[in-house]
Amino acid sequence: MPGRRLFVSAVTSALAGLRCGGGAGPTDPLAPPRPAPRTIAVPLMAVGETVAVFDGDLLLAVTRLTAGTVAAVSRVCTHQGCTVLLPAAAAQTLDCPCHGSRFTTAGSVVQGPATRALASYPARIEGGQVLVTVG
């Protein structure tokens, strides 16, 4: 029956499109709006120093890696969502008190059980401050 075959083919194609990323997207008027990026300014710290930044519900660790580079990462452990601790001294790791995961100050996993790096945010030094872009 050609009508039934055509119907089944159309439904199968539509479902495959949804599974492969069809539906609401960034240009879709039904997609929820994305928040506009914003910049957080943090006073410039010494090389090797890490500071905590709280912005609403966002917890960050911002580290001055070298004289000209900085890293900004989430303090939410990628294993089970605990808040990682700041390093006690320069060149140490961000440690999760819940299950022992350890991360570099740039967010890479040093020791599990976490297998994914901490989320990172663009950061740069401008004048006497660090500018972190979030959102």
Task: Outline the structure in words.
This protein is α+β, with helices and mostly antiparallel strands and 135 residues long. 13% of the residues lie in helices and 32% in strands. It contains one helix and ten strands, in the order H-E-E-E-E-E-E-E-E-E-E. The protein has one helix at residues 2-19, and strands at 38-43, 50-55, 58-64, 70-74, 94-95, 102-103, 109-111, 120-121, 123-126, 129-134. The strands form three sheets. The protein has a four-stranded antiparallel sheet with strand order 2-3-4-8, with no helix packed on it. Strand 3 (58-64) and strand 4 (70-74) form a beta hairpin. 20% of the residues are buried.
Walk me through the topology.
Blueprint: H1 2-19, E1 38-43, E2 50-55, E3 58-64, E4 70-74, E5 94-95, E6 102-103, E7 109-111, E8 120-121, E9 123-126, E10 129-134
Antiparallel strand pairs: 1-10, 2-3, 3-4, 4-8, 5-6, 6-7, 9-10
Notable features of this structure?
135 residues, alpha+beta, four-stranded antiparallel beta sheet, 13% helix, globular
Helix content: 10-25%
Q: Provide the gyration radius in Å.
A: 22 Å
User: Which strand order spans the largest sheet, edge to edge or round the barrel?
Assistant: 2-3-4-8
Count of extended strands: 10
Largest sheet: 4 strands, antiparallel
Number of helices: 1
Compute the average pLDDT: 83
The arrangement of helices and strands along the chain is HEEEEEEEEEE
N/C terminus separation: 53 Å
CA-based shape: globular
Percent of residues in beta strands? Answer: 25-35%
* Structural category: alpha+beta
Low-confidence runs of at least 5 consecutive residues: none
